[in-house]
Amino acid sequence: GYVVQDDVVMGTLTVRENLQFSANLRLRGPQRAERRSRVNRVIAELGLEKCADTFIGTQLLKGVSGGERKRCNIGMELITQPSILFLDEPTTGLDSTTAYNVMCLLKGLSEKGRTIIFSIHQPRFSIYQLFDKLHLMSKGSTVYHGNTQDVLPYFSNLGLECDEFNNPPDFFLDIILKNEKSLPGQLGENYEDATVLSKVDLASEFRSSEANLKLMKQLEGDQDRNCGSAYDLRQFTVDYPTNFFQQVFYISGRLVKNVARNRIPFVSQVLTTVILGMIMGGVYWQIDLSLQSGMQNRLGAMFFVTANCMFSSIAVIVIFVTEKPLFLHESANGYYRISSYFISKMMCDVMPLRTIPTFLFATVTYWMFGFQHDPASYFLYFLTLYLDALASVSIGLAISVNFNVIQVSQIIVTTIFVFFLLFAGLFINVDSIVFPINYLQYTSVLRYSMKAIEIKEFVGLEFCGPSLADPNVTQCISGTQYLSSQGIQYESQWDYWQNPAVLAGMCLVFLVLTYVRLRSIKKLK
Fold first, then answer.
1. Closest by alpha carbon to 390, among 516, 497, 510?
2. Rounded CA gap, 86 and 82, in Å?
């Protein structure tokens, strides 16, 4: 098992639920009761009984302490009962007392037959006393490897003495860092071993030491027994204990819990969407059919609703980027296939976050705007906005999956969306744009959304008002005349349906690109 430096567990799940998730996906064969029993044993072994049903915690959800969080992270690996457990700086971010408690826990695990290997920087003396063996390194080379009780005599034989009241780990760090300096003058002032360190290469001294020679003979014997005359080099492959459908089931369950418990972002998004829709509905309340304002107001309303659905998709990008470390850790450790995670994420997280707000927004705005009172037209209006949002989300995901910093993803995606505004058809007649720039209109999500809504709304309407030449004369312009002036085809059903089809095609293409990129991300270092 391998425990990473940063704690990567789902904050909206309890300690027990996180461990149960690991057991459900990483144990092959045991029935549900046996998996629960394994989880209970790990909880007892790690001393997590009092906080077993407490949330891990997020920025918005109060959770367990740092030490309990670290122990839960260790428990995620202990579920598989590994004989060897690797840990990357397990005391990072913990206070001295909590760090000591975690190390005592690891010491207890080692006394039960497990091999515990970890990296650590400057542990306090009480933690240092727990170590059985020590491995010191300098610039990638071994400076010492052996029993902890033999390390001080080893350096003493080199002329490097540790003061009686000096912490040995601090002494090791001092002499290693100072030995890396090439000039005696850089070794520091008032240091008794400066002259010795300027003449000794600690890495070379260990390579020629008796301890290293014994270690090399032992390794050669182990190699001959295990691998014969040559190393057995095999490419690392992940073995999944569960099938695709089981993985989708358990991942989807966790995602549903995460969305349900992390209510504040979702509820705030829904409320913001409804309030914004009501404000827009009030501004464009029951648009009339006058020549002076009917057409202009309809175009303004259409532009703002489509632009809002496009820009609101940036919120999903934030969620995806923040969960990326958890996905990389779990997929690399054989929890699930990338395809299982991707499909579950789309079904239970990304799509619901777009469906409910878009439905409410479309319902509020359509009837307040006074668009054509036809249920079929309303459904197509909602469908267009929904595809607009999904296409925008897909583009955002395809871009954000390449970056680990949320701000970078947001800047790039926002810039692209602003570019889409230019080719929406409201600010400029796209047919008047010069070649070859005019072909960029075919990349704009907003262009297809606007065309679809315009066709369904303007066909069959007529706008009448006083003529500009003679106010006493009534002039009428049909909606189809406007569409023709903008180069929008509307005669056949395909003229409308090609726009939703293109939006759906963009969703599919960019989601495929996102999935391909997820598969190509390097998960092992």
1. 510
2. 10
